[in-house]
Amino acid sequence: MAEEFVRIENVSKRFGETRAVDDVTLGIGRGEFFSLLGPSGCGKTTLLRMIGGFTFPDDGRVVLDGEDVTSLPPNKRPTNMVFQSYAIFPHLDVRDNIAYGLRTENLPATERDARVDEALAMIRLAGYGARRAQELSGGERQRVALARALVKRPKVLLLDEPLGALDKRLRETMQIELRQLQRAVRISFIFVTHDQEEALSMSDRVAVMEKGRVLQCADPKTLYEQPASRAVASFIGSMNFFDGRVSAITPRTITVQTASLGTFDVPKNGMTNFASGDPVVVAIRPEKFLLAEGSALSNVPGRILALSYLGDRSQLQIAIANAPAPVLASVPNTESQKNFRVGDAVTLSWPQDAPILLPPG
């Protein structure tokens, strides 16, 4: 993490009997693109609003750039927020929408105009200043909302699911543009989303939240390849889970017994939180499975129940003995594998380092 710029210390917020945010502590770096990720109702927006001063915590404190701002209102904090609804004023043109926040700062007209021109160039809408909101596309309205927030030169930009109203293609385009914009302005962005692909593709680090708590905070690669719990593993991408038990441990490997995949070794890789006899959950990503007809690769036979063609890959549901649910496998459509059909018998295998061992529960 870069030099810590935002510090959230033991912050909690209750609404009646509901703990929307429950004793959260986080540090966010200067110039970092940081995402709060989780399902609806997990507390991510409430936490964002407490950083911005729109909601005050019941416990804990918020520190921005070394200053305790816990009790300060939004206009006294070095932050600005972009909402999902954009909140573009329909009676104002683009230029006046962007300049709206500057009018409270008593800037000379020449400086205000110069900053608006700079903002329009930054969002690549130079020449759009006289247009009204109804004359803009969804992506253009989003850019105007960003410019209006950035023109005040905040130290932290807060973004509450700002791409949620866009269609998939425009959303993907705006993800790239937003990341490029963050790198250009070099300030901290704190981004709320329920879309795990969006969070992984844009962020330096991600905090995964559930029921008001942070389950894990890490860079995208670590979250995907080394989830700390079953809840994180199931929320970040697709995952297969198998109940098992540790049967032996050596300095290099952990031997696991499962009812559906048999007995196999997993590289220890520094894992010291398991002992022989412990129950475990074995997690394997769909793309880690290897498939072949017959029994050429392994002794875990299965049968294809369903198949979805996805261009360069196919997604298969495979029935195997003693598994509580079909196994999900994602395989490349190579010459040897592209002709699979529903009902085909296949075998499953996986690289030794593919299984992730997680505590049960």
Textual characterization of the structure:
The chain is an alpha+beta fold and 361 residues long. The protein is built from 8 helices and 20 strands. The strands form 4 sheets. It has a 6-stranded mixed β-sheet with strand order 6-7-8-3-9-10, with helices on both faces. The protein has a 5-stranded antiparallel β-sheet with strand order 13-12-11-14-20. A 5-stranded antiparallel β-sheet has the order 15-19-16-17-18, with no helix packed on it. Strand 11 and strand 12 (253-258) form a beta hairpin.
Taking the alpha carbons of the first and last residues, their distance comes to 30 Å
Oligomer: single chain
Biggest sheet character: 6 strands, mixed
- What structural category arises from helix and sheet content? alpha+beta
Low-confidence stretches: none
Widest β-sheet, arrangement of strands: 6-7-8-3-9-10
Helix content: 10-25%
User: What sort of overall outline do the alpha carbons produce when their principal axes are compared?
Assistant: globular
Report strand %: 35-45%
Query: What is the averaged pLDDT score?
Result: 90
According to CATH, what is the class of the largest domain?
Alpha Beta
